[in-house]
Design goal:
The protein has twelve helices and eight strands. The protein is α/β, with parallel strands linked by helices and about 280 residues long. It has helices at about 5-15, 30-40, 50-55, 65-80, 95-110, 130-145, 170-185, 195-205, 220-225, 240-255, 260-265, 270-280; strands at about 25, 45, 85, 115, 150-155, 190, 210-215, 230-235. The chain has a single domain (about 5-235), classed as Phosphoenolpyruvate-binding domains (TIM Barrel), CATH 3.20.20.60. Helix 4 (about 65-80) runs parallel beside helix 5. Strand 3, helix 5 and strand 4 form a beta-alpha-beta unit.
């Protein structure tokens, strides 16, 4: 991809966080899912690290390598015309040098943004020190800019999602971390695990910066999130797992009843998928 065009896509993605409307990112896991979302009119494509990992045969949590993850991201970035932001977990490394290499590799893939988590393992003890995480964000900003594309950084804390630490201090610790990430250069601040409307509104007000919410069953509607100032809403791996649910239902119907009615409900015609993918590979 032409580096000037890629830099323009980064700025388009950055501006999309300025809402309203809220930037909605259902999260793709391969070229086909990304193309379907682009055809529906989504202005950007975000990947799901869990969805990509599951597709490649890995559990979630940085078990897939950086190169394998970015190979999928690069395929998506080549296939769609809109900006692509990659879920890069905790950056696939622990040092600032690792972050610089990851940032340069993201730019080389054609993506223009990333999610960056502040936990590197499955327990709260793996949460990265706030100051070090801020340095990682600064390093990603500088390293990507040196390659001609200032990546759009969506900085995530897992205090609510994991969860981490005493419940009564979670909000204040989330604000403290996300403010530090914003000061380090993050464009958007991500607090997955938050579903309560009042708490989300309080967080948006406390941060005074674009906030990303992971939406799931029980979350406020998109219109409600927009009213309280949320800039970005994403689905994570939910859509990919919903697709696996369809696979299970079709397989069960075939096995138990010998019928296949669920196979035909809502399926995109073969010819349409062929046209959609072919148009992007030509």
């Amino acid at each position: 991809m032409d580096i000037t065009a890629q830099a323009r896509k980064a700025e388009i993605l950055r501006k999309l966080h300025g809402g309203p409307p809220v930037l909605v990112l259902p999260n793709a896991w391969d070229v086909a899912s990304a193309c379907v979302l682009e055809e529906l009119g989504y202005p950007a494509i975000a990947t799901t690290s869990a969805g990509v990992a599951f597709t490649l045969g890995y559990p979630d949590g940085q078990r897939v390598s950086r190169d394998e993850m970015l190979d999928v991201v690069a395929r998506i970035a080549r296939a769609v015309r809109v900006p692509v932001t990659a879920d890069m977990e905790a950056g696939y490394g622990t040092t600032l040098a690792d972050m610089a290499e990851t940032a340069k590799a993201i730019v080389a893939s054609g993506a223009v943004g990333l999610n960056l988590e502040d936990v590197t393992g499955e327990t709260e003890s793996s949460q990265v020190n706030t100051e070090l995480q801020a340095e990682k964000i600064r390093t990603i900003r500088e390293a990507s800019a040196s390659r001609g594309v200032s990546l759009v950084i969506n900085a995530r804390t897992d205090i609510y999602l994991m969860p981490i630490g005493p419940e009564e201090t979670r909000f204040d610790r989330t604000v403290e971390r996300l403010r530090a990430y914003r000061e380090a250069g993050a464009d958007c601040l991500f607090a997955p695990g938050l579903q309560d409307r009042a708490t989300i509104a309080k967080l948006v007000k406390a941060l005074g910066a674009p906030v990303n919410i992971l939406v799931t069953t029980g979350s406020p509607s998109l219109s409600e999130l927009e009213k309280i100032g949320v800039a970005r809403a994403s689905l994570g791996s939910a859509m990919m797992r919903a697709t696996l649910g369809l696979v299970r239902r079709v397989g069960k119907e075939l096995m138990d009843q010998g019928t296949y009615s669920s196979l035909l409900e809502g399926a995109i015609p073969y010819s349409e998928v062929t046209r959609m993918i072919g148009a992007r590979s030509s």
